[in-house]
Amino acid sequence: MKAAAINPLESAQKQLRVAARLLGLDNKTLNVLSQPKRELNDDIPVRMDDGSTQNFNSLRVQHNDALGPFKGGIRFGPGVSLEEVKALAMWMTWKTALVGIPFGGAKGGIICDPKRFSKRELEALSRGYVQQFVEYIGPDKDIPAPDMYTNAQIMAWMLDEYEKLTGHHAPAAFTGKPVELGGIGARESATGYGGAVVVQQVAKLLKMKPKSTTVAIQGFGNVGHNVAEFLFDAGYKIVALSDSQGAIYNRKGLNPAAAMTCKVEKGRIAECYFAGSVVNGSKSGVITNDELLELDVDILIPAALENQITSKNAGKVKAKVVAELANGPTTPEADRILFEKKAVVVPDTLTNSGGVIGSYFEWVQNSYGYYWADDEVREKLSRILVDAFEKVVQKSREHKVDMRTGAYLLAVGKVARSIELRGGI
Ligand code: GLU
């Protein structure tokens, strides 16, 4: 599952231009929204376990804060790039605006291979990131969160470093923290949970019955694994699962919880086809990630990287619905092909916004110092998503455009209006 060499920033800018044209946005505003407001780019020196010191390029891109403090995750990975982080920061702006939470958009990244780091090295890298960018972070400035290859432990180190450097407690400066440090239980699975809520809305709209609805999911990290389990519990038939090294397919259905147990044990999902209760039928078997995308299923959920559905394979996608749990998995050219084929693409800014909505509830609770139950968080999160889903459907029908453009019209319109109310550019 390699991200093809398509520049995600160019894709994000293309998507923005389509909405800007329909909204009649002036060129000045379009130019400002096409680029981030601030770009932080520095090397972090880390003392490695072997005694050497290595530098890791670290990024924080703050796209827009017209609606509130910058908000967005930090990803670690060898493939992280400035252009990618810029696109992801822009998508965060649209995501938070679309679902109506009081944040702007940002994203961070460190170019490194986290799988080769010891725990101590990871801690040093995480603390180094905060030392580098501390003056730009804060509950009312910019609130980072986990993303690919980052997690609650990394947020805990970052928060600790931030509080040491600033000299006061500030749990709302980071979200996705461990529960003991002000995190909330429902945050970790919030992206997958929100994705399942959105999938159920689109299934209802298209009159699909869960039991006879087949689902293929690309990616088995936090997001892919959680959405698989929530949809399985809701009665959907999960027929394919994958990780970066391969996929398994069975048309009678797979059990994602059993697949997870096996993956933990064996390391790769492709090893899990015959494991215990993962597969409850016969037929089919191990396939590639590319084959997974082209399966004859009702719902396809890309939950891994950008640029998975492109002009090269969009024509071969057979799913009626593509629900984007990853950020930017479909290129603008692929969008056009899928729209012509009448496949419904439920855009990332809506489908995967459960994560940042969960972060919002964490931030609110940290700010108040008052905590409520996870059930209440999920209920509130669902309500926001159901409402946003309906608005996007309505907008796209009104303009006879795909759901992505509908979502952009709502989000970009809101951000542009708030810039205007602040006195313009
Ligand atoms: N990394 C997640 C995303 O891409 C969550 C961001 C956040 O909670 O700030 O939406």
Which segments are poorly predicted (pLDDT under 50) over 5 or more consecutive residues?
Answer: none
Structural class: alpha/beta
N-to-C series of helices and strands: HHEEEHEHEHHEHEEHEHEEHEHHHH
Distance between the termini: 41 Å
Rg (C-alpha, Å): 21 Å
Per CATH, what is the topology of the domain at 190-346? Rossmann fold
Helix content: 40-55%
Q: What percent strand?
A: 15-25%
Tally of separate helices? 14
Please tell me what the overall shape is. globular
What is the topology?
Layout: H1 8-23, H2 27-34, E1 38-47, E2 53-64, E3 70-77, H3 82-99, E4 105-111, H4 119-133, E5 142-146, H5 152-166, H6 190-205, E6 214-218, H7 222-233, E7 237-243, E8 246-249, H8 256-266, E9 285-287, H9 289-293, E10 299-302, E11 321-323, H10 332-340, E12 344-346, H11 348-351, H12 354-368, H13 374-399, H14 403-421
Parallel strand pairs: 3-4, 3-5, 6-7, 6-10, 10-11, 11-12
Antiparallel strand pairs: 1-2, 2-4, 7-8, 8-9
Helix pairs in contact: 1-3, 1-14, 3-14, 4-5, 6-7, 6-12, 6-13, 12-13, 13-14
Which terms summarize this structure?
alpha/beta; 12 strands; binds glutamic acid; five-stranded mixed sheet; Rossmann fold; seven-stranded mixed sheet; 17% strand; single chain
Question: What features would you describe in this structure?
Answer:
The protein contains 14 helices and 12 strands. The radius of gyration is 21 Å and the shape is globular. It has 425 residues and is an alpha/beta fold. The model has no long low-confidence stretch (mean pLDDT 95). It has helices at residues 8-23, 27-34, 82-99, 119-133, 152-166, 190-205, 222-233, 256-266, 289-293, 332-340, 348-351, 354-368, 374-399, 403-421, and strands at residues 38-47, 53-64, 70-77, 105-111, 142-146, 214-218, 237-243, 246-249, 285-287, 299-302, 321-323, 344-346. The longest helix is centred in the C-terminal third of the chain and has 26 residues, at 374-399. The chain has a 7-stranded mixed beta sheet. The chain has a 5-stranded mixed beta sheet with strand order 1-2-4-3-5. Glutamic acid (GLU) is lined by residues 71-73, 145, 147, 175, 327, 352, 355-356, 359. Residues 71-73, 145, 147, 175, 327, 352, 355-356, 359 line the site of glutamic acid.
